[in-house]
Design a protein that fits this description.
The chain is mainly β. It is built from one helix and five strands, in the order βββββα. The protein has a domain of about 60 residues.
Length: about 100
């Protein structure tokens, strides 16, 4: 039985002491047509999305604030590299 309040998307674990620091920037319009292919649960204040398009990918971070949202994105990488960084982010090895 599935309870309605269970989260279906993954949560990001706490960053490890020696985690990689990602460079977060204002969204860049070059890949604005990219689509989200993976995301973390919206029950947390900070939500991450893996976005892919045109053979590249990046990670979008949305901080949900009382007065709106703050959106930042990484620079684009080749898709395989971005997927590896996505896995590192979920496991606390990148932030």
């Amino acid at each position: 039985m599935i309870l309605l309040d269970e989260c279906l998307s993954p949560h990001v674990v706490m960053p490890q002491r020696d985690h990689i620091r990602l460079d977060w920037r204002e969204p860049y319009p070059t890949l604005e047509r990219a689509r989200s292919v993976a995301w973390t649960c919206w029950c947390r204040a900070t939500v991450y999305e893996l976005c892919e398009g045109a053979g590249q990918a990046f990670i979008r971070r949305t901080i949900q604030l009382d007065n709106g949202h703050q959106v930042r994105e990484t620079l684009p990488w080749p898709i395989n590299e971005a997927r590896a960084i996505w896995t590192a982010l979920l496991s606390g090895k990148a932030r």
